[in-house]
């Protein structure tokens, strides 16, 4: 191979490596956003959601009403739903089991453990039980979490 072809190959390879490092760096940043989101739940630091979530944030989960299976729409409604959940399970801990990023999306599989000793939640009176809850979410880092 002439030197010019080797030089072109090396330059292309270096550009590709830089691009791959930038993509990897962005994927890691997106995963870190989800880690901080979980940490905010664990610390009951609901103010942190203001920097982690867009104002029009949608939580595709339950918002506390026993028969409503609608998404929680809006950041303030989400903060209230999380406060209700953590009031019902005051020792709640969320643990990330798996975290996978692709583009601006981050998939997370998690386990929640907490004792239902606080306020009733989703129409269920306090039972003193500590069942683990498992879930998964797909987060869009483009609109924050």
Detailed description of the structure:
- It is a single chain.
- This protein is an alpha+beta fold and 145 residues long.
- Helices cover 41% and strands 21% of the residues.
- It has a three-stranded antiparallel β-sheet with strand order 3-4-5, with helices on one face. Strands 1-2 form a two-stranded antiparallel sheet.
- The longest helix is centred in the N-terminal third of the chain and has 41 residues, at 3-43.
- It has a single domain (3-140), classed as Nuclear Transport Factor 2, Chain: A (Roll).
- The mean pLDDT is 82.
- 17% of the residues are buried.
Keywords:
single chain, alpha+beta, three-stranded antiparallel sheet, 41% helix, 3 helices, 21% strand, two-stranded antiparallel ribbon, Nuclear Transport Factor 2, Chain: A, 145 residues
In short:
This protein has a single domain (3-140), classed as Nuclear Transport Factor 2, Chain: A.
List the helices and strands and how they pair.
Elements: H1 3-43, H2 49-52, E1 58-59, E2 72-73, H3 75-88, E3 93-102, E4 105-113, E5 133-140
Antiparallel strand pairs: 1-2, 3-4, 4-5
